[in-house]
Amino acid sequence: MAQLEWSDALALDLPVMDDIHQEFVDLLAAVDRADDAALLPAWRALVDHTDHHFAQEDAWMASTRFASGNCHSMQHKVVLQVMREGTARAEQGDLKPLRIMASELALWFPQHAQSMDAALALHVRRVGFDPATGIVHAPDALPGELIHGCGGASCSDEDRPASVAREEAAAA
After folding, report:
1. In this predicted model, what pLDDT tens digit does every residue of 32-67 receive, in sequence order?
2. What is the rounded radius of gyration, in angstroms, for the C-alpha atoms of the chain?
3. Distance CA 58, CA 31 (A)
4. 130 phi, psi to nearest 5 deg
5. CA triplet 105, 3, 73: central angle to 5 degrees?
6. The whole model's pTM is what?
7. Which of 105, 113, 110 is nearest to 31 (CA)?
8. Of the four listed, 19, 60, 93, 165, which is most buried by Cβ atoms within 10 Å?
9. Distance of alpha carbon 110 from its chain centroid, rounded?
10. Do 160 and 71 touch, CB atoms closer than 8 A?
11. Can you spell out the DSSP letters for 105-165?
């Protein structure tokens, strides 16, 4: 099974996001280590965490002008749905899908964090969004139109606001 460990490569310089990501990695490791008797409870803890984790990021996106159907939020929805389907299969006695899903999550998460979440962290910092209070301290930095893509370099230029494209080009 592919294992994932927290490292500086996963840190996004947004402490609240980094903390929840590190917790995800720790819970995924607990699933990986679990014997059959402990697997479903460990998986449920991971699903509960992931539900909260994704809801939190989705709320940040909603507060900072991402469209509700943007690709980042849609990926959250699909991953969580698949995780819940794994729970249902395990509740019927089939634990194998959980082991496979845990391995796949260990491969998926770094890519998601280093692309979509990194773009979100950059956007949140750029607009001065305070995750604790929900206040945008630089409302003039908010995009004029809703962000329909993921807000990152992996989306087409037409899906990203020009200000994000300029900021990414300057950082390169």
Report:
1. 999 999 999 999 999 999 999 999 999 999 999 888
2. 17
3. 25
4. -100, 105
5. 20
6. 0.84
7. 105
8. 60
9. 10
10. no
11. HHHHHHHHIIIIIHHHHHHHHHTTEETTTTEES-GGGS-SS-B-S-SSTTS-GGGS-HHHH
